Amino acid sequence: MLYALARPLLFSLDPETAHEVTLRLAGLSLPAKTLREPVRVMGIDFPNPVGLAAGLDKHAEHAAALARLGFGFVELGGVTPRPQAGNPRPRLFRLPAARAIINRYGLNSVGVEAFAHNLERSRSKAVIGVNIGKNRDTPNERAAQDYERCMDVLYPLAHYLSINISSPNTKGLRELQSAQFLADLLKKLRHKRDLLREKHGRQVALVLKVSPDLDDAAVRDVADAVRRERIEGLIVGNTTVSREGVSGLRHADEEGGLSGEPLKRRALAALQAFSRELKGELPLIACGGIMSGADARERFRAGAALVQIYSGLVYRGPRLVSECVAAFSETAAPTRAAHPR
Q: What is the pLDDT of residues 97-110, one digit of tens each?
């Protein structure tokens, strides 16, 4: 209700300014009622299966406040090893008629050291994922070094690390999803994780975040790679370069990744494709176009173990979190009835 009142004011602001104001206001909000629907996924105990997608809190400055909105987990970042400014403003655009957003931030980051400092200072008790990326001037042949640097710094602070190879806003990044690069990259990162697990005496899951724009052959290549390298989870997916559903609208021709309502069908199809290919071999995390509890229910039924929201939060507010948790409860109820504890 409060968000419904505040939204017209926020939407009157420049989108990136509104983004920053919203994050500051989150720190002043009263804690939401605890949403309990516990699930264990990737060896992690989540209070509920509904998470915040990466991109809202890029610098780990608001982790505790965002967790208070009722999320079962919060994914922060993306973060790169060295600070980088990202693309020049304007780089964030609303398309309200389609309940959509286009962004071309370009992985703006304070750098992994400052990010880790912010996260430590937050003292958040939430389940934390961190989305890690490479610097834009790092060639793909040396990308593993950037991800490994982020892993070194963040391993003690996170429950899982999400390997971002799918943002459309860093030139050449999506090439890392190809068979040419992916198998070698994942092999190196899994080896690095194994060394860090020995060093720190704790397990941190590795999750791969992929594009919803992959064709069938690419889906098979990704599935083969994550299976072979025993990656713990797969986020399906990131923003899309498609403009289906927004053609002719103001800002529709802006460069960047599209999210929100128009992504729904494409993201669901990608989730279903990976679900068919992997057959439950590892958990799938659904992200993209989840704008209602009904959308979340559809993702759980399509094989998602967890879901993440971002654009839906912008357009619907925190109420969407409780809707999605309720959708999981409804979806899981028949299973519980058939398999009582």
A: 999 999 999 999 99
Determine the Cα–Cα distance for residues 264 and 267; give it in Å rounded to an integer.
5
The pTM assigned to this predicted structure is 0.95
| Direct distance between the N- and C-terminal alpha carbons of the chain, in angstroms, rounded to an integer | 37
Inform me whether the pLDDT recorded for 293 exceeds 80: yes
Mean pLDDT of 23-39: 75
How far is it, in rounded angstroms, from Cα 135 to Cα 164? 11
Quick check: helix, strand or coil at residue 53? coil
All structural domains of the chain: 2-333 (3.20.20.70)
Give catalytic status of residue 275 as yes or no: no
**Side chain identity at 40, as an amino acid letter?**
R
**8 A C-beta contact, residue 60 and residue 111:** no
Distance CA 237, CA 37 (A): 24
The residue from 124, 166, 167, 329 that is catalytic is 167
Residue 58's pLDDT is what?
Answer: 98
Strand boundaries in the chain, DSSP class E: 39-41, 44-46, 50-52, 73-79, 92-95, 100-103, 128-132, 160-164, 205-210, 233-236, 257-260, 284-287, 304-309
Which of 99, 72, 42 has the alpha carbon at shortest distance from 312? 99
What is the tally of helices (H) and strands (E) in the chain? 11, 13
Count of all residues that appear for the chain in the document: 341
Residue 240 pLDDT level (bands cut at 50, 70, 90): very high
pLDDT value of residue 120: 97
* CA-wise closest residue to 106 among 68, 70, 134: 134
Give the SS3 label for residue 132: strand
Give the tokens for residue 267: 């993201």
